[in-house]
Amino acid sequence: MAKYLNTTAINFELENLIKSSTKFLILISPYLKIAPRLKDLIKHQSSKVPIIIVYGKEELKDKELAWFKSCSNIRLHYCSNLHGKCYINQSSAILSSMNLYDFSQINNNEMGILINTKDDREAITDAYEDAKYLISISDVVSDSISSKDDQDDIVTLKLTSSKIAKKHKLTTPDFIEKMLELGFLEAKGDKHHITDKAKGIGAEFKRGRFGFYFLWPDIDFC
Question: For all residues of the chain together, what is the average pLDDT?
Answer without folding.
Answer: 86
